[in-house]
Structure formats: C-alpha cells, structure tokens
C-alpha cells in the first residue's frame, strides 16, 4: 500500500485557490473547519467548500476537484467530516471518478453537532481495477447542488 497525504505534490487541486491547506504547524486562517490535526494523517488536511450561491466565493457553482494518477488495482479515500450545519456547513456531496468514469458517491447531511468531527472516514474505496495507471478524481459538489464541504485527509492505493 502507498499512502498519499493530502499535502503531497502528487495531489492536484482545482481550482487551486478554492482549497485551503491546513497543518498543525501552519494553521489556516481562511478555513471555517478546524478539526483536531492530531487525529489526521500527518496532521494535515485540505479544506474545500462547494457553494452554488453567486457571490459566495471566487468560484460560485463550480465543483471542486482533487486528483491523483496512480499505478495499481485499488484506491481508498479518507476524509474528516464536520457534523455542524453551519460554520462550517458539514454537508458532504462527493463523486468519485476513475479514468473519467463515475465509480461512486458519498452524500451525507450534516447532523447539526457544532464543533464535532469524525476522523478517518472511508468515503470511497474500489479494489477491482485492472493493474495499470489510473486517474482518480474526487469531485466536491454538483452544479446547482447544495453547499458541501470536503476535508481531505489521505488517499491510499495498492
């Protein structure tokens, strides 16, 4: 197994300025989510919020993506999840693509528990890929969808 931390240069974020990097050593003042970095792989995460509302950010109604290219037969994605319904809005609406084909979704409504986070949540896994190079993409949100948050922690491939 190869573990890729969210902060690794192998991960491509789009739009790059819509994602915020956070670590214990370099706190993110722009992040509304503040999970305990001691409970995250390598004490880091990337925070990305999809918001369909015009004027809400620099990229309204633009789904955010995190992508990697890997050589293997399986990939597993782990995130932290915010349970709050506002500041941050903890709704999850993720789609997962392998080589351009939709392979899974993870949708979860926020539970309304402020300042509560779930850690190392397996939001996607697939272990039946043909051996070879694959392009994996996590997409946060859908055009005209609901506001959603991703706190990406790590990606593991085999």
Summary keywords:
5-stranded antiparallel sheet; 0% helix; 158 residues; Jelly Rolls; mainly beta
In short:
This protein is mainly beta. It has strands at 2-5, 12-14, 19-23, 44-50, 64-72, 75-82, 92-98, 101-108, 117-126, 132-140, 148-157.
Number of strands: 11
Q: CATH superfamily membership, which one?
A: Galactose-binding domain-like
Low-confidence stretches: none
Instruction: Label the overall shape.
Output: globular
Explained architecture:
With 158 residues, the protein is mainly beta. It has a single domain, classed as Galactose-binding domain-like (Jelly Rolls, Sandwich), CATH 2.60.120.260. Helix content is 0%, strand content 51%. The protein is built from no helices and eleven strands. The protein has strands at residues 2-5, 12-14, 19-23, 44-50, 64-72, 75-82, 92-98, 101-108, 117-126, 132-140, 148-157. The strands form two sheets. Strands 1, 3, 4, 6, 9 and 11 form a six-stranded antiparallel sheet that branches. A five-stranded antiparallel sheet has the order 2-5-10-7-8, with no helix packed on it. The protein is globular and about 40 Å long. 34% of the residues are buried.
